[in-house]
Amino acid sequence: MRIGIIGLPQTGKTTLFNLLCVAGGAHVSHHGANEPTVAVVKVPDPRLEWLASTIFKPKKITHATMEFVDFVGLTRGVGKGEGLGSHYLAQMRQVDALLQVLRDFDDPGIAHVEGRLDAARDAFLANTELLLADLDTVEKRIGRVEADLKKIKKDEAVRELEILKRCRAWLVEEKPIHDLPQSEDDRKALRGFTLLTAKPTLLLLNVGERELGKPNPTQDRLRRALGGKGVAVMQLCAKTERELAQLSPQDAEAFRKDLGLQTSGFAAVLRACFDLLGLITFYTGEGKDETRAWTIPAGSTALKAAGTVHSELERGFIRAEVVNFADLQAHGSMAAVRKKGLHRVEGKEYTVADGDIVLVRFNV
Ligand SMILES: Nc1nc2c(ncn2[C@@H]2O[C@H](COP(=O)(O)OP(=O)(O)O)[C@@H](O)[C@H]2O)c(=O)[nH]1
Ligand SMILES: [Mg+2]
Fold this sequence. Notes:
Number of domains: 3
Number of helices: 14
Shape: globular
Bound molecules: guanosine-5'-diphosphate, magnesium ion
Structural class: alpha/beta
Order of helices and strands: EHEEHEEHEHHHEHEHHHEEHHEHHEE
Helix content: 40-55%
Radius of gyration: 23 Å
CATH architecture of the largest domain: 3-Layer(aba) Sandwich
Mean pLDDT: 92
Strand order of the largest sheet: 2-3-5-1-6-7-8
CATH superfamily of the largest domain: P-loop containing nucleotide triphosphate hydrolases
Largest sheet: 7 strands, mixed
Distance between the termini: 29 Å
C-alpha cells in the first residue's frame, strides 16, 4: 500500500516524512529532480516481536511495510494542471490513500503561503484542487465515451456514461467522490479512473509544540466540515515527534509522559492508515526460518492470504491451519493451543481475522 503525503507548502510534510523514515527504519529511494521521494516503512508490530521471541525463534523477522511518498507542496492551480500540475496529479493518482498535512502550528519564522493560520481553509483549498482535477478527468472521459457511443452503441459504455455523469454532477457541487452513493458495479467502473477525491484521506493536523496534549477545537471543526466515509482526522506535532524519534525508546517514553502524549506519533499515523484502508495483519512462521507479518484488506479469504504470501500457495491451496494471536498469547505455546482445541483447519473461503497465524498446506 502506498500513501501520498500532500498539502500546502511549509506545512510539515517533509518533517513528517523524515519522522516516518527514522522511526520506521525506512529504505528511502530518490528518483530524480521532478520525482517525489519514496520511503518503505516498517509497520511497528509488538505482536510480531512477541511471536518471534517467544514462539518461533526464527533466524529472520520481517515486518509488514507501507510506502510513503513525500510530494512537493500543493499550490493553487495544480488541479487545472498548471505548472508541473499535470505531472504532480499523475503521480498522486498512483497512491492508495492521501495523507494531507495541515499546518496548525504558529511560527513567525516560517512563512504561511495563505498568510494566516487556518487549517480548515487550507483543507478546503487543497480539496478544491483535487475536485477540479477529478472534474477534468471525468469531463474528458465523458467526451471520449460519448464520441465512441456515436460510432457503436454498447451497453457497457452506456452504463459508464451514466456513472460518469453522476460523478460530474456530484463534483460540480464540490462534493468528493468517496461520498457518492455507489453500487459495487459503480465502484468497479470508477476504480479505473483513479479519481483523487475517491481515495481514502487522512487529514493530519500538524499542531505546535505548545499545543501538545491539549484538546484541539480545529480537529472537531475539520471532522464536521470534511469528515465522512473514507476520511479520518488526527493530530500530532511533527517537529516534536521527529525529535523524539531520535532518542532511545526509554528517553522518548519519559519525554512523552512529561508532554502528556499517550502513544508515539509514528505508531498513531500507521494505525490511522491501517484503519483508513481497512487493513488487517496476519502472520506466518510455523516451521520456518522467518517470522513474518503480512497486510491484507479486512474480509479477505484464506485463499487470498495464501496468494499474498506466494502465488504457488494460492494455486495449490489445500487447507489453512489457523491459530489466533490472542489464543496463542493466552496459552503460551502452540502445543497448549492445540490441547485446548483452538487450533483450526480452515478452507479457501475462510475469512482471515486480524492476528491470525496462518500455515497454508498446499500441493503444486
Ligand atoms: N514550530 C514548528 N515548526 C514546524 C513543525 N513542523 C514543521 N515545522 C517547520 O516548518 C518548516 C517547513 O517544514 P517542512 O517539513 O519542510 O514542510 P513541507 O514544505 O510541507 O515539506 C521547517 O522549517 C520545519 O522545521 C512544527 O510542528 N512546529
Ligand atoms: Mg517538503
